[in-house]
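In the design runs reported in the main text, the only information available to the sequence generator was the tokenized backbone. The following block is the verbatim input for one such run; it is reproduced so that readers can re-run the procedure and compare outputs position by position.
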């Protein structure tokens, strides 16, 4: 058992609430990340066994199920596995015959607070943390929609003085796409003030539905770096990323994303969904949206206007044959 400074009842509840953001957590990963969190969670589960009582296996299981239905609902574990963990660590003790269970002894740093905690306090702390996160998400979304509909910049990440400079480079890349008849979306990836790679939307030319500007630039940078993780980088892209690109951005561990025009049809950074604010996904890039948004959006609008004109002249195949979206 560990030897940590004593925790207060309030700190216990607050920490349990924080941990509950990690939906689907495994006890093994909690333990390897932080021994205190591991013990705090096991102690929380053990508190669901009434103090000083000897419980038969069925009663003990019911107590653990009650924990897993409330304060422990975010854990990826079943009651039998949890019971094994508790018994192995001494938070729950088995009788000599192995048929009865009772609450064990807690490590010193948890003991004082444990005596002041009720099962309901623990359940409520986790429920409240969940509600607070839902409220935050709703507020963010509301604020986002209000700003986006007013044509204003939408930001979570603080502005960086060079954001517009790099967005202009991304716009240059979007022009490359246009030159090849692709929907004009461009991207650059920046690390330590240097452009690591550039990319533009090219699904038609590459006959590749995944060849969005973001994927192109991530692929180029990962090959240059010979590393599939692109830590400490900022991605600039002229259009709000779609769900596929948001996923690729998360897999690549991009630290920050700056995008230009909102995409009301497939935007996954707030317009349709906000995958960057989804707490169940474990990597979070910080996001700044709407940088040179009018300019980026204008480019797309001019492109589609030109295409409609060409189509009317019969110089381009009909929209449904080629697909209007080509690239968001
Ligand atoms: Zn995309």
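Verbatim output:
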């Amino acid at each position: 058992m560990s030897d940590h400074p004593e925790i207060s009842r309030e700190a216990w509840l607050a920490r349990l609430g924080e941990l509950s953001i990690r939906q689907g957590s495994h006890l093994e990963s909690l333990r390897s990340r932080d021994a205190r969190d591991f013990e705090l969670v096991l102690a929380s589960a053990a508190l669901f066994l009434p103090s000083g009582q000897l419980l038969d296996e069925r009663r003990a299981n019911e107590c653990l199920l009650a924990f897993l239905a409330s304060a422990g609902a975010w854990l990826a574990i079943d009651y039998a596995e949890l019971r094994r963990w508790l018994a192995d660590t001494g938070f729950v003790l088995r009788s000599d015959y192995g048929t009865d269970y009772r609450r064990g002894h807690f490590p010193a740093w948890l003991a004082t607070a444990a005596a002041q905690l009720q099962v309901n306090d623990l359940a409520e702390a986790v429920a409240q943390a969940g509600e607070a996160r839902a409220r935050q998400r709703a507020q963010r979304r509301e604020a986002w929609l209000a700003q986006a509909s007013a044509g204003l910049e939408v930001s979570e990440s603080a502005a960086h003085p060079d954001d517009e400079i790099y967005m202009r480079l991304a716009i240059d890349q979007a022009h490359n796409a246009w030159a090849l008849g692709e929907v004009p979306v461009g991207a650059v990836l920046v690390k330590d003030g240097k452009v690591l790679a550039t990319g533009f939307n090219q699904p038609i030319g590459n006959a590749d539905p995944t060849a969005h500007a973001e994927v192109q630039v991530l692929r180029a940078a990962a090959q240059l770096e010979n590393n599939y993780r692109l830590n400490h980088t900022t991605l600039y892209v002229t259009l709000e990323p779609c769900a596929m690109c948001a996923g690729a951005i998360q897999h690549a561990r991009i630290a920050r994303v700056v995008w230009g025009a909102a995409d009301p049809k497939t935007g996954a950074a707030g317009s349709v969904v906000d995958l960057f604010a989804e707490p169940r996904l474990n990597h979070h890039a910080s996001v700044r949206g709407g940088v040179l948004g009018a300019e980026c959006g204008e480019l797309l609008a001019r492109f589609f206007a030109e295409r409609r004109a060409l189509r009317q002249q019969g110089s381009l195949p009909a929209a449904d044959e080629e697909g209007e979206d080509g690239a968001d």
